[in-house]
Amino acid sequence: MPKQLAIFDLDGTILDTLADLHQSVNHALSCSGFPLRTLNQVRQDVGNGIRKLIERSVPAGTPDSAAERVYRDFTAHYAGHCADLTKPYPGIPELLPALRRAGFRTAVVSNKADYAVRTLCEHFYPGQFDMILGERPDIPKKPAPDPVFRVLKDLCCSPGDAVYIGDSEVDIETARNAGIPCVSVDWGFRERSLLMQAGGAPIVSSPAELLRLLTGL
């Protein structure tokens, strides 16, 4: 699969962010007196942006005004705590420079709020990405292809020279909508069986396997 640009999802793909998301969700819920969520519930709820995460976290029938309050409380808390427990997946810190040595450019496209994506990438992977793009009001979220198209345009790359790497059914659909191949990873927030059901292929189980697939080495 020789390519020139590797576009990565963030949560569940290059960073294990689940514990910090879980803590911020429960902080925001507790501020409004709502029931707390388990770690596994939050795992299943992520992938479509913060607003959708909050929508799935509040009790059914919650008024929009109350859900908006939970969203604001989450955002305020997560802005100051997004890197407390977050950590790179093993092998990713070695994968990124290896790809760049092999001639790849690298980028991140995420449904996480843009401020958090930039903060986390600059904290854990400084200088490792040619472009970083999180959720912004002027660009539709994944699985819309728009954020991928923005990266391709800004980096002057054709779809035929790019590959998208992610851990969820949202990523598979995003790549399909953008007309580029997708490599799914099974170390993230979704089980391998779900990725298979969503049409994920190929699916890799380690960054070393991903490097071999992308570079042919």
Describe this structure in words.
- With 217 residues, the chain is α/β, with parallel strands linked by helices.
- It has two domains: 142 residues, HAD superfamily/HAD-like (Rossmann fold); 64 residues, DNA polymerase, domain 1 (Orthogonal Bundle), CATH 1.10.150.240.
- It is built from ten helices and eight strands.
- The strands form two sheets. It has a six-stranded parallel sheet, sandwiched between helices. The chain has a two-stranded antiparallel ribbon with strand order 2-3.
What is this structure, in a nutshell?
This protein has 217 residues and is an alpha/beta fold. It has ten helices and eight strands.
What is the CATH architecture assignment of the largest domain? Answer: 3-Layer(aba) Sandwich
CATH topology of the largest domain: Rossmann fold
Neighbour order of strands in the largest sheet: 5-4-1-6-7-8
% residues in beta strands = 15-25%
Question: How many strand units?
Answer: 8
Question: How many domains make up the coordinates?
Answer: 2
Beginning-to-end CA distance, first to last residue:
10 Å
Q: Helical proportion? A: 40-55%
Give the CATH level 1 class of the largest domain: Alpha Beta
Q: Low-confidence runs (pLDDT<50, min 5 residues)?
A: none
Average pLDDT across residues? 95
